[in-house]
Amino acid sequence: MQVKRALLKLSGEALAGPNGSGLHGETLTAIAADIAAANRAGFEVAIVVGGGNFFRGVQGLSRGLTRNAGDSIGMLGTVMNALALEHAIEAAGVPARAMSAIAMPALCESYARRRAIDHLGNGKVVVLGGGTGNPWFTTDTGAALRAAELECDVLLKGTNVDGVYDSDPRANPHAIRFDRLTHAEAIARDLKVMDTAAFALARDSGLSILVFSLHTPGAICAALRGEGAFTLVA
Ligand code: UDP
Question: Where is the Aspartate/glutamate/uridylate kinase domain (predicted)?
């Protein structure tokens, strides 16, 4: 698979590092350095960030909020992460542009497909906050949506483990990693690595998903080159 333009999905958890919530400076810097290296290597990288390190919509239910209210708060969390990542990537020496699916012009640009494509073509990393801009969705689905819209060659899903296993590799030392799965298999197995809506959208738009571990320096560049350990859903 020859990759020129990629959509990288980073969960909020990936930015929380050992803290488990909020933002962890060293982790943010390390991920930004990896993204900057990918940009310098000539890849066009758009990023969709999650917000679980701040808030997930369903958490609101236990606090007397409706799902709609909780999801609004969750989407705001993703914009906070997008702003943090934009800053960290620029600090790593590469131009970046945060764009939000929900207009907040005092903080960042509003997402518009053609403008995002222009930024990518001009050598900027684009960091997309706000998910799909709608409640009842996740940023995984937002990532599949933006990858399809921006005509990305692949969706890179960075996680804590180096692919998709037949059981939890942290609990079962004999767990086997899949090298390759179809979208239909991923949906049928109800894999937790991404939600069904995201897999279905990827399937319908002919988008491949590469699941890899973010935990080695240079992991993002390696994944873009198809090197290292990963599972490909195609
Ligand atoms: N969210 C939403 N619509 C979207 C994307 C996200 O309402 O299109 C909200 C939802 O409440 C979600 C939260 O934002 O729980 C954070 O996103 P997500 O859980 O996908 O983040 P991650 O698990 O990747 O950190």
Answer: 4-213
